[in-house]
Amino acid sequence: MDYVLAALVGCFVALGVYLLLSRSLIRMLLGLVILGNGVNLLIFTAGRLTLQVAPIVPPGLDQPEGPIANPLPQALILTAIVIGFAMFSFLLVLAFRTYQSLDADNTDTMRLAEPVDAPQPPLSY
Amino acid sequence: MNTIIFRTIAPLIVATMLVFSIYVCLRGHNEPGGGFIGGLIGASAIAVLGMATSATHARKALYFDPLSFAGFGVLLAGLTGLISIFNDNPFMTSIWLYLELGESTVPLSTPLVFDIGVYLVVFGTISSIALGLESDEGEEP
Amino acid sequence: MAAPDLSAAMIETATLPTDWVVVLPLVLALMGAALLLIVRQSRGLSFVLALVSVLAIIACEITLLLQIFANGPVSMTMGKWLPPFGISFTADAFGASFALAAAVVTLVVLIYAEPEQPASVGGGSFYALVLLLLAGVTGSFLTGDLFNLYVWFEVLLIASFGLMVLGGRAIQLDGTVKYGFLNFLATTVFLLSLGLLYGLLGTLNMADVLRVAPQANPAAMAGVAALMLLAFGMKAAAFPVNAWLPASYHTPPAAISALMAGLLTKVGIYALLRTLVAVLPATRDLLEPVLIIIAIATLLIGPLGAIAETNLRRAMGFIVIGGIGAVMAGIALPNLAAISGAGLYIFHAMLTMTALYLVAGLIERFTGQTDTRQMGGLYAANAPLSVLFLVLVLAAAGVPPTLGFWPKLLLLQGGLEMGGWIGGLLVSALLLNAVLTLIAGTRLWAHMFWRAAPAEAVPVDRLPILPLHWLGTGVLFAMIVAAGLWPNPMLEVVRSGAADMLDPARYIAAVGLAGVTP
Q: Residue C147: left if φ>0, alpha if ψ -120 to 50, beta else—which one?
């Protein structure tokens, strides 16, 4: 099972990198999201996969009776998902506003901050 | 999004979702649920309201600015963490209070208040983003 | 229900109230940001509240620094759980002094930016975002847990996004797109390395990682460290991944870009210093050739870019990159002198780079231009400005009577102690960087202040320099000059911080993992 998930993580990361290499902002954004999901799956796999019961302590006991699944990766992934979601929504709004005001989705035409045809710097002191 | 069916049903959906979001938030301590998911449900209720009426109307219905809800949530969550300074424990140590009400015991705790803080943070931020996207000239989140 | 035996998982001794100074700066910043979010409709109230919060944070951090100086690193683990289970906040001399510098820089920027905030409704959102940024920066400096470091990185990232687009001019959107996408990618790569590290070691507490790392497979650990190098290198704008910085830092208003230039790249390079030198020292040795190449390339590319640049604040951006190279040189040279030099350089760069951007903002206000080709004759028009700029440029280059001289001296000492051709290479790169920075800085100075004023073709809107601008810049300037003339306290602080980084016994003991066998 670990190998299947590892291969899946590999696919996610490959797809994310492929989309990130695009010039279109929306594709880059989708690439970042897919990359983030790949990373989350990686944390999940790295926390060791078990087929045991959910990590919930039964009522009336202080600790679980038998072996349980590792609860920590879930906490890490949940945090990462929340943060990734906030970032994604911010960048989505940003890409939309940029499209509205610069009329550009292609990063090559987005040269307001770094003008392409800037004159050479002066040679004198 | 402007059909009469949607506009008629929307207030009912919104009210149900808001109540359900509080239910999910409170049940979260022992069962699946919690402040985060509750806040998301509450924020989607506000998003539905914004779609059915208008972002301005939804803001007016909220009375306070959505981001102020988020700020208040952080403040609440931070304060619950600070309480444990008074009994020589590190930051964020939970404190429990068992209220005996007749036959049943109601457990009150700082994690519960913390969770309500999380609810408010998520509710405020997500509604602010959703309303910002719905209005024509909204501000950045 | 009988009380269970929890001694294996819970802290059972009482926590001293003095330990709270580790978390208080962070909690104050976060709650200050929350309060400011609520009152952000009122600009005046926001300003006062922000000032009060930052002053309280500074007071806490001074207490923390004094305590560390007396008793060694201070640590607190959340929620009474024993260290590897609970999230630890651990501060040594490096973390505490950088957090203090960050708070001071924030205070100065708050004062400087006050007259620039719009009087309209919502004019206080700047203050809420600045406090949120400070919370992220303080958290990154004081945390003792790698996953928590990731969370604070994201907090400061969100706040910096908000600050960068504040005002919403088209050029800002352009800059934020480049800044935002690349930095989000960097934190995702960092998260990737954390996932692998957790899979290898089963822990992310820095002190615990330090204990169990030697048992892991060195090749796999080298992969993790390489990913961290990439992630933090992107954050810090080190050589191959530095292009986003000069593309974005000049777009927001001067006060905001000053705050970013002072804080953000320094957090990135501090995280690299902490993870590679203090937490994974064996792995750092494997990456040493790469670190040396990155350090030399960053040292040279920064000032060379600044020489070829005519936009004032973009040129400053290249100088910031050159400074990152100096810290990278410290990371590449693992001895006491070089690590203290790197630490002092981070401290110096926080103050000096912020001051440089603030002065650049004053020059832009005074001339109404952003390009040095259209400036000139400023020496006659505004002599104090020229003195400020010249001294700060000398500090950035590391010329003796300024603060910038001492970290360069320590780094050179470290390079000479290292010896061999590697030490010689790094020493020559550091010296070359100083010369090139000096050329770039004096060239800008000559163009703006010394050359005759060009004939004004188009009328520009000049803005007055207000008393609060002078106050903010002056306070920072005085601190840089004073610390340069009397560097002993800072030298002692960084020596103690570097000693704790190279010999982590005190750090591990502070977290409470000293006697535990892995």
A: alpha
- Chain C hits for B74, CB-CB cut-off 8 Å, are 30-31, 33-34, 37
Q: The domain that contains A43 carries what CATH number? A: 1.10.287.3510
Confirm whether B141 is domain-assigned. Answer: no
Per the domain annotation, does A79 fall within a domain? yes
Residue located via tokens 């002072």: C262
**Partner B contacted by A99 (CB < 8 A):** no
C37 contacts in chain B (CB < 8 Å): 67-68, 70-71, 74
CB distance C176–A94 less than 8 Å?
yes
> Would residue A6 count as lying in a domain?
yes
Residue of C nearest to B93 (CA): C79
Residue B101's contacts (CB-CB under 8 Å, 6 or more residues apart) are none
Report the number of distinct structural domains present in chain B.
1
- Please indicate, yes or no, if residue C467 is contained in any of the structural domains: yes
pTM of the model: 0.93
Radius of gyration over every alpha carbon of chain A, rounded to an integer in angstroms: 22
Amino acid at C223: G
Q: Is residue B99 part of a domain?
A: yes
Domain that holds residue B15: 4-134
C-interface mutation test, from A43, A85, A102, most C Cβ less than 10 A away: A43
As a whole number of angstroms, the distance between CA C170 and CA C165 comes to 9
Please give the Cα distance from B132 to B56 (Å, whole number): 10
Domain boundaries, position A43: 2-49+70-109
Q: Domain total for chain C?
A: 1
Residue A114 lies in a domain: no
Task: Give pLDDT tens digits along chain C (518 positions).
Answer: 445 566 667 777 777 777 888 899 999 999 999 999 888 888 888 899 999 999 999 999 999 999 998 888 988 888 878 877 888 899 989 999 999 999 999 999 999 988 887 766 556 788 999 999 999 999 999 999 999 999 999 999 999 999 998 877 888 889 999 999 999 999 999 999 999 999 999 889 999 998 888 888 889 999 999 999 999 999 999 988 998 999 899 999 999 999 999 999 999 999 999 999 999 988 888 899 999 999 999 999 999 999 988 889 999 999 999 999 999 999 998 889 999 999 999 999 999 999 999 999 999 988 888 888 888 788 888 888 899 999 999 999 998 888 899 999 999 999 999 888 888 999 999 999 999 999 999 999 988 888 887 776 666 778 888 888 899 999 999 999 999 999 999 999 999 999 988 888 888 888 887 765 54
Q: Cβ C147–A79 below 8 Å, yes or no?
A: yes
Residue C6 in domain: no
Chain A residue numbers touching C199 (CB-CB < 8 A): 42, 45-47
Which residue spans within chain B are E strands per DSSP? 96-101, 104-109
d(CA C482, CA C491): 14
Domain span at C232: 18-453+463-511
Contact: C196, A46; criterion CB under 8 Å: yes
Among C34, B45, C180, C256, CA closest to A93: C180
Asked if residues B62 and C24 have their Cβ atoms less than 8 Å apart, the reply is no
* B-chain residue closest to C79, CA distance: B93
